[in-house]
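Consider the following input, taken from an annotated entry for gamma-glutamylcyclotransferase (Stichopus japonicus).
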Amino acid sequence: MDWGTATIVEKKGVNVWGVVWKIDLAAVSNLDRQEDVYLPKEVTIEMTDGTSLLCRTYQIDLLTLMAPMPAYKQVCIEGAREHGLPDYYIQKLMAIQDNGDTKTLTPTMVKMAEAKKD
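Applying the prediction step yields:
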């Protein structure tokens, strides 16, 4: 893999925003296969209303952290906007340095392009 992926890095005083999806337990194995470069990890998150929720996240090994491709970074930014994440957080995503590779397509990007054709 020659590109960076999104992950959660625990750091005191820093928040990670995201979206919670409820899926059937039967679909978890499919999601695990799709996210095969990640390690599944259960974390307790704090919702915007102050309640806590146990969620399955997917995190990459910190030894393999690399800068994302511009297109992948843009997908993350568009997803954050689409789901109403705070502007300050979107600005933080925009400030992440990408790797400048505008030619390579990740398997996920190919799947997304194919899905848009349908």
